[in-house]
Specification:
PH-domain like; 2 domains; 7-stranded antiparallel sheet
């Protein structure tokens, strides 16, 4: 027991690998959910650790939720991990995609991908996401969903 008292690095290593294991388990669980929901539907891009700040049409200040973002050949899909918020934006309804730092009049002090689209009510709306590698995501969305006819 005296040995463990002098070896603090063991506690740090256990905590580190515990966090890595938790992240791996969460991603495995998310992938399992994606497979059950979408089956063999081809996914063009996928990112975990995406933050969604809500739609501009929603009342109040921007709210943040963390989850994953999927890009399909015909739609963009987001699902939060804890709040179970889901947003599917069909590609045909997307008007434009651009970079900004402000959402709903609030400077969020981070790089955001904003998507202007028509919501289910047929009204102009804007969704804001913080994604890893924003330029690559913007290019992928433009290539897949904003094809010029």
């Amino acid at each position: 027991m005296h040995f463990l008292g002098e070896q603090q690095w063991i506690y740090i290593a256990i905590a580190f690998f515990g966090i890595i294991g938790y992240i791996a388990w969460m991603r495995w669980r998310d992938r399992k959910w994606i497979e059950a929901r979408f089956g063999s539907r081809p996914t063009l891009a996928m990112s975990f650790g995406v933050n969604f700040f809500g739609n501009a049409s929603e009342p109040g200040k921007p709210r943040r939720s963390s989850g994953f973002l999927l890009l399909f050949s015909d739609a963009l899909f987001y699902r939060s991990r804890v709040k179970k918020i889901e947003l599917e934006i069909p590609g045909a309804r997307i008007a434009r995609i651009y970079h900004d730092r402000v959402h709903k009049g609030v400077d969020l002090r981070q790089s955001l991908i904003k998507i202007d689209f028509l919501n289910d009510a047929g009204q102009q709306d804007t969704a804001a996401f913080k994604v890893p590698y924003p330029p690559q995501w913007m290019q992928a969305i433009e290539n897949a969903l904003l094809k010029k006819e």
